[in-house]
């Protein structure tokens, strides 16, 4: 039977301490539901005595229908000048009325002397008395042994005596904290082993920070040495360099090592959970993040793709679907014919290796990438290239003329742009539109969709989501070729297109046109149907 490891998530508390991260109360409640659905054993909701938002969380979370997770309130041992029954922090922990309380206390004698400014023995009394007082009033008490590994190196006997004080006080689990994030994996296991031997009846946990980029490895070593409880955050977000990343830890422990961390059926929710945390934390996604990143199972080199097409085991350590991800075949100047065939399958084209079109597409790809195109980030533009080469593309409209005027010198600081578009439709009629926007690309986007939407009503829901500009030849400075990547989408999904030109507006225009052409060539695209006699529209 697989050994169970209890997963303790501190994204809502430790993760919120990451620079530029601030979860709202609604964010925290939404994440609590997602963590519970994933199968997390413990959710640390925050420090109820530190701010009103965390205090409110412990009130509101009781209204959720959590099925798996136990909510933990976090706080410190009582102030040296107080007793537990008079300490405001301890009172606030009890007021949170959570089934679990996690208490952080000093285990490094240097911290007792320099931070708390008490004697080492007084610190032991504080640890013991705080936990004893809380344990009589809450169901479960966890002791976070702060700076334990540094304290152990400096004074093993004292660090262990701090653990004994917590255990004697009634702590249900002692969690060894590698707070400074400076330890290396080979240092972790001997310490955890020693703790387990010294206190054979105690339950031991691990909490690692990532300042040496070893938090995941350190956590795994602790589990191998006997830890049964793991603390960390989703995506590893946290103060300084972050915490141990629970996404990778759960994947490694459960998929690779046979431990049980979450229900097996929930593993496929990992990418979804990872993206949710990035979204609510307002952080950029990490495409190269192991297991769940967009690039985690992306294959670019021709040799790699050829091998993966024969067996995914050649260049993938697990099936991507196990963690809710998917395989992606990229196309670039490094591509071989296998890349082209894989993309053809993905796009629904019947293309064989011996077809002349396969060679022609590959040659066009390499030539265009040499010019500065980059199709791995603009797969919708590449699909259009394939359609045109294979004769599966039909012109949906002609742009007779397009003009944009932009103003940015208004003394009030307001920006505006106006675009004028005239297009010819498949029935031979023309459509004309004028639109204003807060910039030239926004104005062009509005104008062309206004000109087309009466004939192609499916374009009404298309929105521009992202816009990126890259200089291809930076040495040419303002004369450099510009590559513009645009991400568009509707209710059915998102797609990326690209344009290339020395003129940034023209490059953006090319990407916009590709975006609409792509939408009109999708399998679920309807044929053009005019709503009115005239398609002209002004804004």
Description:
- By secondary structure, the protein is an alpha/beta fold.
- The chain has 2 domains: 6-262, Alpha-Beta Barrel (TIM Barrel); 398-538, Alpha-isopropylmalate synthase LeuA, regulatory domain (Double Stranded RNA Binding Domain, 2-Layer Sandwich).
- The protein is 37% helix and 19% strand.
- It has 17 helices and 17 strands.
- It has helices at residues 25-38, 52-60, 88-95, 109-114, 120-135, 148-154, 156-169, 185-198, 215-224, 246-256, 270-280, 302-310, 337-347, 356-371, 379-390, 440-452, 504-521; strands at residues 6-9, 42-46, 70-76, 100-106, 140-146, 173-178, 204-208, 229-232, 298-299, 328-329, 398-407, 416-424, 430-437, 463-471, 482-490, 493-501, 537-538.
- The strands form 4 sheets. It has an 8-stranded parallel barrel, surrounded by 8 helices. Strands 11-12-13-17 form a 4-stranded mixed β-sheet. A 3-stranded antiparallel β-sheet has the order 14-15-16.
- The chain is elongated and about 90 Å long.
- Mean pLDDT is 89; it is low at 532-539.
Query: And the CATH topology of the largest domain?
Result: TIM Barrel
In the predicted model, the low-confidence regions spanning at least 5 consecutive residues are: 532-539
Q: Fraction of residues in helices?
A: 25-40%
The CATH architecture of the largest domain can be given as Alpha-Beta Barrel
Produce the secondary structure layout.
Elements: E1 6-9, H1 25-38, E2 42-46, H2 52-60, E3 70-76, H3 88-95, E4 100-106, H4 109-114, H5 120-135, E5 140-146, H6 148-154, H7 156-169, E6 173-178, H8 185-198, E7 204-208, H9 215-224, E8 229-232, H10 246-256, H11 270-280, E9 298-299, H12 302-310, E10 328-329, H13 337-347, H14 356-371, H15 379-390, E11 398-407, E12 416-424, E13 430-437, H16 440-452, E14 463-471, E15 482-490, E16 493-501, H17 504-521, E17 537-538
Parallel strand pairs: 1-2, 1-8, 2-3, 3-4, 4-5, 5-6, 6-7, 7-8, 9-10, 13-17
Antiparallel strand pairs: 11-12, 12-13, 14-15, 15-16
């Amino acid at each position: 039977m697989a050994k169970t490891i209890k997963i303790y998530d501190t994204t809502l508390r430790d993760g919120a301490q990451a620079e530029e991260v601030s979860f709202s109360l609604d964010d925290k409640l939404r994440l609590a539901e997602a963590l519970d659905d994933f199968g997390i054993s413990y959710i640390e909701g925050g420090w109820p005595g530190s701010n009103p938002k965390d205090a409110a969380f412990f009130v509101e979370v009781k209204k959720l229908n959590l099925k798996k997770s136990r909510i933990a309130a976090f706080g410190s041992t009582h102030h040296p000048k107080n007793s537990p029954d008079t300490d405001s922090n301890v009172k606030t922990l009890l007021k949170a009325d959570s089934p679990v309380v996690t208490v952080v206390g000093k285990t490094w004698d240097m911290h007792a002397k320099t931070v708390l400014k008490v004697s080492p023995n007084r610190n032991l009394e504080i640890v013991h008395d705080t936990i004893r007082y809380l344990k009589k009033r809450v169901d479960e008490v966890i002791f976070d042994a702060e700076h334990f590994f540094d304290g152990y190196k400096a004074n093993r006997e004292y660090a262990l005596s701090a653990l004994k004080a917590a255990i004697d006080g009634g702590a249900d689990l002692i969690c060894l904290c590698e707070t400074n994030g400076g330890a290396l994996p080979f240092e972790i296991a001997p310490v955890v082993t020693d703790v387990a031997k010294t206190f054979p009846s105690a339950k031991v946990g691990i909490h690692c920070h990532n300042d040496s980029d070893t938090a995941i490895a350190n956590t795994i070593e602790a589990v191998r040495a006997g830890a049964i409880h793991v603390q960390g955050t989703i995506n590893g977000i946290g103060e300084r360099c972050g915490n141990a990343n629970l996404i990778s830890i759960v994947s490694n422990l459960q998929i690779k090592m046979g431990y049980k961390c979450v229900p097996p059926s929930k593993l496929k929710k990992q990418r979804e959970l990872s993206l949710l945390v990035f979204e609510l934390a307002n952080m950029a996604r990490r495409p190269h993040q192991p297991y769940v990143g967009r690039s985690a199972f992306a294959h670019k080199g021709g040799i790699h793709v050829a091998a993966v097409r024969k067996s995914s085991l050649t260049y993938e350590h697990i099936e991507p679907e196990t963690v809710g991800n998917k395989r992606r075949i990229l196309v670039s100047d490094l591509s071989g014919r296998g890349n082209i065939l894989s993309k053809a399958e993905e796009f629904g084209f019947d293309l064989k290796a011996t077809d002349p079109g396969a060679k022609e597409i590959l040659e066009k790809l390499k030539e265009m990438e040499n010019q500065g195109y980059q199709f791995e980030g603009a797969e919708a533009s590449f699909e259009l290239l394939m359609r045109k080469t294979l004769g599966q593309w039909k012109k949906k409209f002609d742009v007779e003329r397009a003009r944009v005027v932009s103003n940015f010198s208004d003394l009030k600081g307001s920006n505006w742009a106006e675009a004028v578009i005239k297009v010819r439709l498949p029935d031979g009629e023309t459509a004309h539109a004028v639109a204003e926007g807060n910039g030239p690309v926004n104005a062009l986007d509005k104008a062309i969709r206004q000109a087309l939407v009466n004939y192609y009503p499916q374009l009404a829901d298309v929105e521009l989501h992202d816009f990126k500009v890259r200089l291809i030849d930076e040495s040419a400075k303002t004369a450099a070729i510009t590559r513009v990547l645009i991400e568009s989408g509707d209710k059915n999904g998102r797609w990326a297109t690209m344009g290339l030109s020395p003129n940034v507006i023209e490059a953006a225009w090319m990407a916009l046109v590709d975006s609409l052409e792509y939408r009109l060539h999708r399998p679920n695209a309807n044929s053009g149907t005019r709503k009115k006699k005239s398609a002209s529209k002004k804004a």
